[in-house]
Write a structure and sequence with these properties.
Layout lengths: L3 H51 L3 H13 L5 E5 L4 E6 L3 H6 L3 H12 L4 E6 L4 E7 L3 H66 L8 H21 L6 E3 L1 H13 L6 E5 L9 E3 L1 H19 L3 E9 L3 E8 L6 H4 L17 H12 L3 E8 L3 E9 L7
Parallel strand pairs: 6-8
Antiparallel strand pairs: 1-2, 1-4, 3-4, 5-7, 8-9, 9-11, 10-11
């Protein structure tokens, strides 16, 4: 089933595409109309210049002068027939014109890129002399052309905020679901486990059950551990000062007893033997158990599981490496997703649960450091070296 926030993501993306596309097309339409209108205005301005230069009628000259001075938006540069700047220009920065000798040349080159077809006034046919008028974009036209970019940024920010809010809401719902399921599982296990403990006490009273009672006790203790783990998942676990090396040794010995002799377990604790940090021992053991089980599945009964560890001033680094079948590149990004599994049996929540325990409860990181199909894989745990605060 597709998450609701993902459906909203598709809808919001579609709305954004429609809005931005519509804005771009409309802005291009408006800017095209403004550009055409500005060319007409420049043509009128040029005609006014012609009148000022050639007419002897004072009324016409006065009208042309008024038309010429009314252009306060469109920058214009006049050149001769050889495109040499004559010095006549309009709506340019007068301070830069005076202080920067190359300013007019740069603006002329810019205007030519914008519109390489100047409006021309022929002064004389023989010899041919003329004034050419190049013009650039007005501030209004620039603003209209920038409008789609501004709208795109606004829409992008809106969608980003909406997606973050939706994803946060989705994660919050998922976290609540995880906690609720864990609490319910712990509750459901508690009653039959308590009952089994009572029956175990009855069995102990009979001499004939002497051999089977210890084995049943082990299974009941295992169920108690599982119940405790789920209980801690359902609420914020209490961290305590621990030596991770001891936890790793304990879990490796536990898993070694439940595998065949064809699997070689290696752990050198020299680098972290005395290192301490804040952990929830039952939950950290659960992560190690999941990673080792995952490695055993990859080995298929034959190979090596090597755990290496080191620390620096801030972090403890633990690598769990196997010589198994490895993970394909397509699956590396999927292995921590709930429900993903390549096994014929299994729910696909072990690695997802482990990542949650390390990252949410211990503020660390869990990821695939390296994997190569047919060679093996390495999962890395990064834990902050937190010290217990003095009361």
């Amino acid at each position: 089933m597709t998450p609701q926030w993902l459906n909203w993501k598709i809808v919001l993306t579609f709305i954004a595409i429609v809005l931005v596309s519509g804005t771009i097309f409309y802005s291009q339409y408006v800017s095209g109309k403004i550009a055409a209108e500005e060319r007409k205005n420049v043509a009128v301005w040029v005609e006014a210049q012609r009148t000022i230069l050639s007419s002897s009628d004072s009324a016409s000259i006065n009208l042309a002068t008024r038309i010429s001075t009314e252009n306060t938006n469109i920058p214009i540069i006049e050149t001769n027939e050889k495109d040499s700047i004559t010095g006549n220009h309009s709506n340019l920065d007068s301070q830069l014109v005076q202080s920067d000798p190359g300013y007019l040349k740069r603006k002329l080159a810019e205007f030519k890129r914008y519109n390489n077809k100047p409006i021309t006034i022929v002064l004389t046919e023989k010899p041919y002399t003329a004034n050419r008028y190049y013009y650039g974009e007005s501030e209004l036209l620039k603003e209209v052309q920038l409008y789609p970019l501004i709208q795109l940024i606004i829409v992008g920010l809106f969608i980003t905020i909406a997606l973050v809010a939706l994803q946060t809401s989705y994660k919050s719902e998922q976290n609540q679901l995880w906690a609720s399921m864990a609490k319910e599982t712990a509750h459901q296990l508690g009653t039959p486990v308590s009952s089994l403990q009572g029956w175990l006490e009855i069995l102990k009273e009979r001499e004939a059950n002497r051999d089977i009672v210890p084995e049943i006790a082990k299974d009941i203790n295992r169920l108690l551990l599982i119940t405790d783990r789920f209980g801690k998942i359902g609420s914020e676990p209490q961290l305590e000062q621990c030596r991770p090396a001891e936890q790793i040794h304990h879990m490796m010995e536990y898993m070694k007893k439940r595998t065949g002799g064809q699997v070689n377990f290696i752990f050198d604790d020299t680098a972290i033997k005395h290192t301490e940090t804040l952990l929830s021992p039952p939950l950290f053991d659960w992560v190690l158990e999941n990673l080792i089980k995952n490695a055993l599945d990859a080995l298929e009964g034959n190979g090596t599981i090597r755990i290496t560890a080191e620390s620096n001033e801030k972090y403890l680094l633990i690598d769990v490496t196997d010589t198994g079948k490895g993970i394909s590149k397509n699956n590396i990004s999927e292995v921590f997703k709930p429900g993903f599994t390549t096994k014929k049996r299994g729910w696909g929540i072990g690695l997802s649960l482990s990542k949650r325990i390390i990252e949410q409860y211990h503020k660390g990181k869990l990821f695939v450091k390296w994997s190569e199909p047919g060679t093996g894989s390495t999962f890395r745990i990064i834990l902050p070296l937190q010290q217990q605060q003095a009361v």
